[in-house]
């Protein structure tokens, strides 16, 4: 150890003992043991306890629908802030310019579990916003992040809070104290891997998907035993040579080994089929297809994965041989129509895919954004590319840009209205192929990319399952945050400028707004405590803004959980 | 103008960037010494980091660990002002006062590989120079690596 000797002219004193930085807050350090009894069976029936938001999408079907109906189209105009939890970091952290609050909170019997950027996890009193405990994982400053310092949420079960870290660890925390119970390394930061996904509890396991597609990794899903952290299975989303699907990659070379297809957004689950429905990410390099001829399975696909074994049972590829960065990570919303078990997936490429979720059969494809110039997908699934980066250095301009007609942020579905509510981005981009050699841990796009900062639009658009647009609420800026719908027939959505809006789920009529001071790029939820309904939305603009809305690169960062409720004098008749 | 690594120290000195209130108001970050932690038989790593009088610099300002794990750091404040130490650690960052002419030890746990900033987070100690780095070398466990052929690195 390099050392300088003590000075002999100084009589040193003892410094006060070190403390956990979190002890210098008002947090008591403990939360009620409400998570102890959260089981797989309760999550299976999550909608029967609407006071809670037990899993990432609220329920396994991904509908982001709540049966709570105290807040209605009539009284939502009186919604006011109930509390705000604001947090700002100390010292330097990774992605200081790109951190964002992309979280989707989990609520169990009055306790809210929240993950933030840079390894933060908080337990909050869901009625008051009081911090109960906090956990901070030390995240290396030099971790590889394609799109910002973000985390999308935790999972809660069996008295534990499960969270992924940017340096590719998976943790189980004690839900009453925040103490770490187990910590496994799931990915290789030297390869450019990271984890941003909210884990999904399925049976006695949690399932996570890796990030790192822009660094030329090989994507995978992993299932870990909830009690021990032991890995139960790993599902690579790109086949090795000789495995099914490997014929869609060059037979020579190692393009498959760098091919991406990461599962960085939480999947949905149907206990009857025992299948996880997970979207996969772009191929790598994103825009240079000449080095990876073929369809490049299972990139840009919906894959149905056996929850017990991790085997891929069927797949549907939304953008074969992608040249536009059109990940298919977005949610697969499970619903039924005419007795069929279906799923709907609104893809970056501007089309919605309705599939039979028992076998992957195509049922319907329809566009959901005005401008689609990259190519065309016919109703029978034929894909015809039209504009794409091809010749070295030659710029092409196409719609939607690489952030897609809908980014990862989630649509919602109401079984009351039988409508899907979709946050839409209508933005183009200019791309020129620029080939580069693959080097592990270095971004691997194969292009120069600039996304339009003008001539853009957004909306929350409502579609029925037949693909008909029923209404559209227009916004000047693209909509870059998840949508929530409730049994009060209210749709909630946040805008990039910071306003949180409420719309009539049946008509799209604008009902209410509140300026939260920073743009929205997260997933709002609703819950109730002591019979009172609350709506919570994490607010904190950032992340891949240069990709999805460079016209708001200068927008203010934020870091606050805003929670709204009706004033005390509002009659809660019909509330639950 | 180009400089080589070996010329960097002298260039910083000539420009007055490696001290307080010379070329700039404070001291350019990460211009201090580099030190290595020692690993004991118990697997814990140990290091001593000082605050240099009137220089608002950690010494060493870059501490190198051979791998992730547990690290005991003895901080020694040789300065005639009060500072503190905020150091990342899994679970929660550790924080301690460092009054004038005091010393104290904190224990932190860090993953590897990667590097982490630590600082004195009062006033503008950070901007004046009291930000240092803990560099963790090594690799992730074999079980966490991708099943693929060895890939080229920069």
TrEMBL record, chain A:
Domain Pyrrolo-quinoline quinone repeat: 53-363, 478-535
SMART domains assigned: PQQ
GO cellular component, one term: membrane
Keywords: Metal-binding, Oxidoreductase
Cofactor: pyrroloquinoline quinone
One Pfam family from the record: PQQ
GO function term, MF aspect, one: calcium ion binding
Cross-referenced PANTHER family: QUINOPROTEIN ALCOHOL DEHYDROGENASE (CYTOCHROME C) (PTHR32303), QUINOPROTEIN ETHANOL DEHYDROGENASE (PTHR32303:SF20)
Family: Belongs to the bacterial PQQ dehydrogenase family.
Protein name from the UniProt record: Alcohol dehydrogenase (Cytochrome c)
The organism of origin for this protein: Geodermatophilus siccatus
From TrEMBL, chain B:
Membrane-traversing stretches: none
InterPro entries hit by this protein: Cu_oxidase_CS, Cupredoxin, PQQ_MSMEG_3727
Alphabetic keyword roster: Metal-binding
One example GO MF annotation: metal ion binding
Coiled-coil ranges from the UniProt annotation: none
Pfam family, one: MSMEG_3727_PQQ-assoc
NCBIfam families hit by this protein: PQQ_MSMEG_3727
Protein name from the UniProt record: PQQ system protein
Species annotation: Geodermatophilus siccatus
């Amino acid at each position: 150890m390099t050392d300088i000797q003590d000075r002999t002219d100084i009589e040193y004193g003892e410094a006060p003992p070190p403390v956990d930085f979190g002890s210098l807050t008002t947090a008591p350090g403990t939360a009620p043991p409400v998570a102890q009894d959260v089981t797989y069976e309760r999550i299976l029936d999550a909608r029967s306890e609407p006071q809670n938001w037990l899993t990432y999408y609220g329920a396994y079907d991904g509908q982001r629908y709540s049966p709570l109906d105290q807040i209605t189209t009539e009284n939502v105009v009186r919604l006011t802030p109930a509390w705000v939890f604001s947090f700002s970091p100390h010292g330097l952290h990774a992605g200081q310019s790109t951190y964002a609050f992309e979280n989707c909170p989990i609520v169990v019997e009055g306790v809210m579990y929240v993950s933030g950027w840079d390894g933060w996890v908080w337990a909050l009193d869901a009625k008051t916003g009081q911090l109960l405990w906090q956990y901070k994982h030390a995240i290396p400053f030099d971790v590889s992040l394609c799109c910002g310092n973000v985390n999308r949420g935790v999972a809660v079960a069996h008295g534990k809070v499960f969270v992924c870290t940017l340096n590719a660890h998976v943790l189980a925390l004690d839900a009453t104290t925040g103490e770490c119970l187990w910590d496994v390394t799931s990915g290789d930061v030297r390869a450019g891997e990271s984890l941003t996904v909210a884990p999904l509890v399925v049976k006695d396991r949690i399932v996570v998907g890796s990030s790192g597609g822009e660094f030329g990794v090989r994507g995978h899903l992993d299932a870990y035993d909830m009690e021990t952290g032991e890995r139960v299975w790993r599902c690579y989303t790109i086949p090795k040579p000789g495995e099914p699907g490997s014929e869609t990659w060059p037979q020579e070379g190692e393009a498959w080994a760098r091919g991406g297809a990461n599962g960085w957004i939480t999947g949905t689950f149907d206990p009857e089929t025992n299948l996880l429905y997970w979207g996969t990410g772009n191929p790598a390099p994103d825009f240079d297809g000449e080095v990876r001829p073929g369809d490049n399975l299972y990139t840009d696909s919906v894959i149905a994965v056996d929850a017990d074994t991790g085997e891929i049972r069927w797949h549907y590829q939304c953008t074969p041989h992608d040249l536009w960065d059109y990940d298919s990570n977005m949610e697969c919303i499970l619903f039924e129509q005419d007795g069929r078990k279906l799923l709907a997936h609104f893809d970056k490429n501007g089309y919605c895919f309705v599939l039979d979720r028992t076998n992957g059969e195509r049922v319907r494809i329809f566009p959901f954004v005005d401008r689609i110039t990259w190519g065309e997908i016919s109703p029978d699934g034929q894909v015809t590319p039209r504009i794409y980066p091809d010749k070295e250095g030659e710029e092409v301009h196409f719609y939607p840009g690489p952030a897609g007609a809908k980014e990862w942020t989630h649509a919602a579905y109401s079984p009351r209205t039988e409508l899907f509510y979709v946050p839409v981005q209508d933005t183009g981009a200019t791309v020129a192929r620029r080939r580069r050699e693959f080097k592990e841990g270095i971004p691997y796009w194969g292009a120069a990319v600039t996304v339009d900062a003008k001539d853009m639009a957004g909306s929350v658009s409502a579609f029925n399952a037949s693909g008909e647009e029923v209404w559209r609420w227009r916004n000047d800026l693209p909509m870059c945050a998840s949508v929530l719908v409730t049994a009060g027939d209210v749709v909630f959505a946040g805008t990039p400028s910071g306003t949180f809006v409420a719309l009539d789920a049946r008509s799209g009529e604008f009902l209410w707004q509140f300026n939260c001071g920073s743009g929205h790029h997260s997933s709002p939820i609703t819950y109730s405590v002591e019979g009172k309904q609350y709506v919570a939305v994490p607010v904190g603009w950032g992340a891949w803004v240069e990709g999805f809305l460079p016209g708001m690169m200068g927008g203010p960062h934020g870091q606050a959980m805003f929670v709204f409720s009706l004033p005390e004098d509002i009659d809660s008749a019909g509330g639950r | 103008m180009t400089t080589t690594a070996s010329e960097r120290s002298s260039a910083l000195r000539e420009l007055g960037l490696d001290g307080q209130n010379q070329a700039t108001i404070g001291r350019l970050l990460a211009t201090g010494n580099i030190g290595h932690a020692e690993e004991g038989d118990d697997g814990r790593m140990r290091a001593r980091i000082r605050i240099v009088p009137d220089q608002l610099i950690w010494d060493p300002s870059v501490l190198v660990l051979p791998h992730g794990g547990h690290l005991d750091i003895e901080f020694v404040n040789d300065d005639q002002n009060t500072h503190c130490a905020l150091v990342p650690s899994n679970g929660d960052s550790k924080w301690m006062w460092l009054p004038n002419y005091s010393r104290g030890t904190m224990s932190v746990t860090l993953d590897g590989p990667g590097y982490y900033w630590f600082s004195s987070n009062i006033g503008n100690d950070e901007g004046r120079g009291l930000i240092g780095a803990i560099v963790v070398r090594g690799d992730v466990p074999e079980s966490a690596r991708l099943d693929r052929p060895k890939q080229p690195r920069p």
